[in-house]
Structure formats: C-alpha cells, structure tokens
Specification:
It is a single chain. With about 725 residues, the chain is mainly β. β36 and β37 (about 330-335) form a beta hairpin. α3 packs across α4 (about 565-575). The radius of gyration is 28 Å and the shape is globular. The model is unreliable at about 1-40, about 420-425, about 445-500, about 540, about 675-680 and about 720-725 (pLDDT under 50).
Length: about 725
C-alpha cells in the first residue's frame, strides 16, 4: 500500500498540465452540494389557486421562481412535473396542507428548492399528510429559513426520498414530524440525502428511525448540522441504517439527546455501512437494551470523532457490536466494528460501558476508550461470545484504554478495562504490546495492569475466571505478558487477514447532479484538476471546500472565481505545483486531448526517448508529445482503438477513468469478470447511463466506488471485497 501511495504521489508531482474529475457544472461545491437554480421567470402568489397555476403552467425544462405573498392553506398536493425547476421563496410565510396529501410531490427529473417557508398541517389533524415526497430522479434542496414541522406519514414524516431521488438540507429545520418509519427523513431505493447544515429535531418514529431512516440502497452523507431529540419506539433514535446495502457517512455534525424506547441504538442503529470521520454522538439513550450511542450489526468504521455520555440499560453504553441470527440459530450477518481513531468516553451500561462485543468482530487500531462505567462487567470493553457456532473475534492492536471502572463488588463481575461475561463457545482475543492500559478499576474480576499482564484477583495461579454467573469455569490458558490469542475452544480456526493486508482504494470520480456519470462526455481541465486534488486528500468524497493551509485567498487565474464549483480544487492543485495556466487564465472548461493526457501519464514513469509506435496515425502525433505517447504506448498505460491513437482527439471521462485506474493499479485482466459479480453491483454507486455490459463499466466501477482489494503473489487483483465501504 505504501508503494501505491508513493506511485500516486510521484504522479502528482510529475504533472505539469493537469485537469480533472467529475462534471458537476450545476453544482456549487461538487457532488455533495445542492443545485443552484437560475429562474427564468418570477411569479408572486397570494393563494393556493395561484400557487397551483404557477407550477402547472410551466413548460418542460423550464425554471420558475415563485414568491409567497401570504400564508396559504393547501387543499391538494402540488406536483413538480418532469423537467420543471421550481424555487419557492416563502418570505417567512406558512403553507398549511389541509388535505390527506403531501405538500409537494417531485416527479422524475423535477426539482424544488425551498427557502424561508414553513410546511405544516393543522394542529387537530387526524390523518396522514404533509411534508415532501421526492421520487425517481427528483431533486429537493431545502435552504435556510425553511421549516417542515408537525406532519405525519407512514414513512418519512418530513421528507420521503425514493428511486434515485436526491435531497440536500442546507440550513433548514425538520422538526416535530411523526411516522412509523422515520419521523424526519426516510431514504429508500437508491435515494441520497446530503446534510450540509440545519437540524433534524424532535421527530418521532412509532417503529424505527426517529430522525433519519436509510433503507434499501440509500445513502446519507452528514457534513454538519444536528440530529437532536428524536425518538423511536424500537431502534435508531437518531438514525436507523436499516439495510445491509444502505450507507451513512458522518463527516461532522452532532447526533445528541436521541432515544429509543425499545432495544437497539439510542443514537444510531446500523445494519449496513456506517463511517464516522468526525463529529459527536453524545447523550443518547436506549431504554430497553443495547447500544446507547451506536448499535452495530453491519460494518461500522470509526476514523475519528467522539461517542460520549451515552447510556444503555443493558449492554454497550457507547457501542454494542453484535452478530444477528435467525430463529434456527443460523447467522444473518456479523457486526464488524473497526476503530481507527477517535474517542469513546463517559458512557454507561450494565456491561461494556464503552464497547460491548457480542459474537461480532471488533478491531481497535488506535483511539481512546476512557472513563466509561459498567455496573457489572467491562468498564471499558466487555466481550460476550455465547453462540454455539458463531466465533467472536476481538483484536486490540493499539490505542489507549484508561480510567474505566466497574461498580459491582460481586465476585462474578469485574474487569475495569476488559471484562468477559461468558466464553461458552469458540472465541478469540488478541492484545498487542502497543495497547496502553492505565487506571482502570474494578473490585473483582479480570483486570489489566500497567505491566500488560492479565490477572484475576481471585485466583492466585493467574488463570481467568470468565464465568458469567458462577466462579467455576476457568480457561485453560494463562495470560503471560503479550502471549494472548486463543481464549477458548480448540484454537485451530484461521483468523481473518489483518486490515493492513488489504489495499483500500477510495473513489475519485462521481456523477453529476442527476446521478449520471456521462462516460462519453469530454473531460475538462477543471475536472482533471479535481481528480488530482482529490487523490491528495485523505477524504476524497468530502471534497475540497477550503483553501490550502496558509492560503487566505486564491486569485492566480482570472477565470477561476470563488463562486465556481472547481475553485477550491484548482487552488489545491495549484498550491501543490500540479497545474499551470496560460497568460493568467486556467481555461477550466476546455477539454483535454489524448496526447496531452499522455504527457501527464508519462511523467508518472520514466519518460522514454522518442520512438515510433505501431499506431496507424503515428505521424499525426505532435512533435512535443511524441516521447510521451511513445512512453505510455510501451508501458501499456494508454491504448488506441482500431489501430489509431487519435492524438488530437478530446478524451472522454470513461477513457480518463481507464487511464487513471492503470496508473493507480486498480485494474488487471480479470477486472471485467469481477466487475459483473452481482455481489459488487448491489453495493456499487448506480449510474443510469453506465450499463454493466459496456467496455468501460469495470473502469467506472473502480473509479467511482470505495473498495478493498488484495493481490496474489503474482500481483493479480482479487476484488473479493466490499464495494463502497466508505472508509
């Protein structure tokens, strides 16, 4: 992986002409942004009839700004039809839906942007109505001053997104809504919800997902804002990620004071993919059972942020990681919790004040688990591996476990730092020397001392008493210093490869505001610049929404202004010495030719002396580009078509993805086979204009999806890994 990183870096530093990533000309800050609508006409309305007429008289592919002059009572839903772009300026007025219907329904490719308006229903309503439904490829943008409150629905009391619909919340508030599935926002199908700022607060789910419910193959990206005070009856007080194909990425923001009356996840309940990069999950509570902060039965990766001051009545004050089973005892899926960084502190539970790992896979690489409290077992971490066939795995490779405590004085309880409830099956614990234990306290039970020996306070011979409710069971292994691996059973199972054996490849190309990749479109200089800027950042999908350190402003090019989506990307690329302009201009929207891209790619390797290729149009290659084209030809980094290289032809996004993947080592001769595997397609980001039967599908799959891969001894790629893991 280090060699791959060096190769990428050498590619960046060798570049002179650059230019790249995805075309989002309609977007303000890249993919994770709302689409600004430029109205062609402005209409002011006084009542519902005028509002209906203002929308229904729009022609296809037109835009209209509608200004409310009064509070309006609605007696039917307003439909934003295909190809209509509506901006609704409320001026602080209220739309009250009096019918058994939504306020707005957005159909295929329709677009609605609301600002400074409140959508609600009468206080004495007794049926389901209100809110906004986003269908098919519709787009909803909710901006500052907008409020959706008091509405009721079967799913998504405030907003319901389905199909490949897209909802962006940037400054508004969704509060006090009620639904069986997500009182606030419900994401279904392949829908996407992007939260840039604003609040989702005090909504109620009579089933699951108080604030947000991400279902099916839906995606939720939280960049900032608050999810606060929401309630669910069964699980996911703040967020429910209810499908193994659903994804939530938390880049920042706050999830606090949410609660679940039932069993799972006061803050977040995850059965899909959940990545925490920054922000906080705090002061949430599960009243019934487990996972005060996070209940995980899917894949949860913690890269940073904090999980603090959450409460679970039974297990896992901070995080409960668990495998789920069918009635016959067979496994549905195993929870995988990986802690790479961050803090889990101040949480409280019956067992596992910080983390409770129940027949799942828990790996801690770094971070801190501190000052958590358990009433019975495992102030910091508690392990319970009780299933007769499923093997639990707990691996501590690094980090700090300190200041945790167990309150109980019963001899069957204990483990200030680590505690076992029972070991009635095959179970594994691995503790590396890099792990730091300090000042964990328990009256009895398993304890970690500062010298890294594991001791039992009751048995003088050093053996561990793991019995949950008796003191009779002992493990036939003594913990001596760091020689810790098999805790129970035969110990002959093969452990999964460590995370470092995998190569992680983040996505670097995405789609436009309609969800299309546009594979045949010419790639521009701004887009190539974006590709290069993204490949220098740790968090590709988060994008570059700030200037580089030490740069207070950027005005190197007269045609690169702060209001353009590519402004920050080009600033980063320019600051790194990767791009240059022409007479004070960057020409961001100009296409790039195949021989220009060849020059960029050639500089990632040793540039050869000029030679002759076998292309029929070799004589058409520009003199300055001949050595570069010859280099990529000999290295197999760019190939022609029909025996021609076509040096002066503009290069498309699909062909750029193919060339970039060769540089980054993402494809080999077997990639087309793996790319058609249905297991990957279920997780892959969908593009309506990229069929899996096209030649470029494997390249776009590798470019547009986070994924892990391994290589065999010959360097051949094995894609047997989860696509879109959102590391």
């Amino acid at each position: 992986m280090l060699n791959k990183s060096k190769k990428i870096l050498s590619f960046m530093l060798a570049l002179v002409m650059l230019v790249g990533l995805f075309p989002v000309a309609a977007l303000a800050i890249g993919e994770d942004s709302y689409v600004e609508i430029t109205p062609l006409t402005t209409v002011s309305v006084n009542d519902f009839a005028e509002l209906q007429a203002a929308v229904s008289t729009m022609s296809a592919n037109s835009s209209r700004e509608i200004v409310l002059l009064n509070n309006i009572g609605m007696t039917a839903p307003v439909t934003i039809a295909q190809g209509r772009n509506v901006t609704l300026l409320g001026n602080g007025h209220v739309l009250t839906q009096q019918a058994n219907a939504r306020h707005f329904t957005i159909n295929n490719t329709g677009m609605l942007c609301i600002r400074d308006v409140t959508l609600t229903v009468p206080s004495d309503t007794t049926f389901n109505h209100g809110g906004i439904a986003v269908g098919a490829t519709g787009v909803l943008n909710m901006l500052s001053g907008s409020i959706i409150s008091g509405n009721t629905s079967n799913s998504g009391g405030g907003v319901h997104v389905t199909g490949t619909g897209r909802f962006t919340l940037d400054g508004g508030v969704i509060r006090g809504n009620t639904s069986s599935h997500s009182g606030g926002v419900f994401i279904d199908g392949h829908g996407t919800f992007i939260m840039i700022s604003g609040a989702i607060s005090y909504n109620t789910a009579t089933s699951a997902g108080g604030g947000v419910h991400v279902n099916s193959s839906g995606t939720f990206r939280m960049h900032n804002g608050e999810i606060v005070g929401n309630t669910a009856s069964t699980g996911g007080g703040g967020i429910l990620i209810g499908s193994n194909l659903a994804t939530t990425i938390m880049y920042n923001g706050i999830i606090r004071n949410n609660s679940t009356l039932g069993n799972f996840g006061g803050g977040v309940s995850n059965a899909g993919i959940f990545a925490l990069h920054d922000g906080s999950i705090s002061n949430n509570k599960v009243h019934g059972n487990s996972g005060g902060g996070v209940f995980n039965s899917g894949e949860f990766t913690m890269h940073g942020g904090s999980i603090s001051n959450n409460t679970a009545n039974t297990n896992g004050g901070g995080v409960h990681n668990v495998a789920t089973f069918r009635a016959d005892g067979s496994t549905v899926q195993v929870g995988i919790f990986t802690m790479n960084s961050g803090t889990i502190s101040g949480n409280t539970a019956g067992s596992g004040g910080g983390v409770f790992n129940s027949v799942g896979e828990f790996t801690m690489h770094d971070g801190t688990i501190s000052d958590n409290t358990a009433y019975a077992n495992g102030g910091g971490i508690s392990f319970s591996h009780t299933h007769p066939t499923q093997t639990g795995l707990s691996t501590l490779n690094g980090g700090t476990i300190s200041g945790n405590r167990v309150i109980s004085t019963a001899t069957r309880n204990g483990g200030g730092g680590l505690g076992w409830i029972t070991v009635a099956c095959l179970a594994y614990l691995s503790v590396a020397p890099a792990v730091t234990f300090s000042t964990n306290t328990a009256a009895t039970g398993l304890r970690i001392n500062d010298d890294m020996n594991l001791e039992h306070n009751i048995n003088a011979n050093g053996r561990i008493n793991p019995g949950a409710w008796t003191n009779s069971a002992t493990v036939p292994h003594v913990f001596n210093n760091h020689d810790i691996r098999t805790i129970a059973g035969e110990g002959d199972e093969t452990l999964p490869p460590p995370v470092d054996d995998y190569e992680f490849h983040p996505a670097y190309m995405f789609g436009d505001d309609r969800g299309n990749f546009r594979p045949s479109a010419d790639i521009t200089r701004a887009e190539v610049a974006t590709i290069l800027a993204r490949t220098q950042l740790l968090d590709f999908e988060h994008g570059v929404q700030r200037l580089p350190p030490g740069m207070s402003s950027f005005n190197a090019f007269s045609d690169v202004n702060p209001d353009r989506w590519f402004y920050y990307y080009i600033a980063w690329a320019y600051d790194a010495g990767l791009v240059q302009g022409y007479a004070g201009r960057f020409r961001p929207n100009d296409p790039i030719t195949r021989e220009e891209l060849a020059a960029i790619i050639a500089r990632t390797t040793t540039v050869r002396q000029e030679g002759t290729t076998s292309f029929n149009d070799d004589g058409n290659i520009s003199t300055w580009a001949r050595r570069y084209v010859y280099t990529v030809y000999r290295e197999g980094l760019m190939i022609g078509s029909g025996g021609n290289f076509r040096p002066g032809e503009n290069i498309t996004r699909a062909k750029t993805a193919t060339a970039m993947n060769r540089i980054l080592g993402r494809l080999d001769s077997r990639s087309a086979f793996y790319a058609t595997d249905v297991a990957y397609l279920n997780y892959a980001r969908p593009f309506p204009d990229v069929a899996n039967t096209t030649w470029y599908f494997p390249s776009i799959l590798a470019a547009a999806n986070d994924h892990r891969l391994t290589r065999d001894s010959d360097g051949a790629i094995d894609w047997k890994a989860i696509i879109r893991v959102t590391e």
